[in-house]
Amino acid sequence: MNEDERMPRPGPSPEAGPPHPQSPPSTDAKVEAPSPDVALADEASPLPGAHRGGFRRLPTAPIPVTVQSAPAEPGTEEEAPSAQWLASGEPAMHRGLAGWALAFAIAGLIVSLFVGWGFPIGLVAVISAILALRRPLESRAVGVWAIAIGVVSILYSSGWLLYAATRANLLG
Q1: How would residue 8 be classed by pLDDT, with cut points 50, 70 and 90?
Q2: Which domain, by its residues, includes 132?
Q3: Residue 102, Cβ neighbours under 10 Å: how many?
Q4: In-domain check, residue 82
Q5: What are the Cα distances from residue 93, in Å, to 52, 90, 96, 102?
Q6: This prediction's pTM
């Protein structure tokens, strides 16, 4: 037996009599005034998630950290030594990615003047220079120079590879 079969089902009460499907529902509903012991709300109850005017910063804004002292131990007369809480220093963005990109670009250009397999160095230079341009502390001029020299080193390397392919009769 399941739970529904064990529960007694309420049947029609003998006082109610048989239901009358022809009779319309009653429309005499009245709303009474509240009794004096009911306290009315000053404002309308807010819906869940409704703005209540308490926001003063964006949800992603940084939270200021202030220096606070620890309260005194209960039951002691003298004040406990104060402990100060300081914000842990977030690691600052390091500069130098644009400089590294320029160094890779120059090395890639020097290598590509002699062999064709130096194009990965130029690719590293171009990618790191693009990343450096997206960072706020990096030098834009150094990043642009790194991109330009890195592209030239890739072109020189592709020229060497094309020359080698034609000499080996790999291209038509």
Answers
A1: low
A2: 116-167
A3: 25
A4: no
A5: 38, 9, 10, 19
A6: 0.47
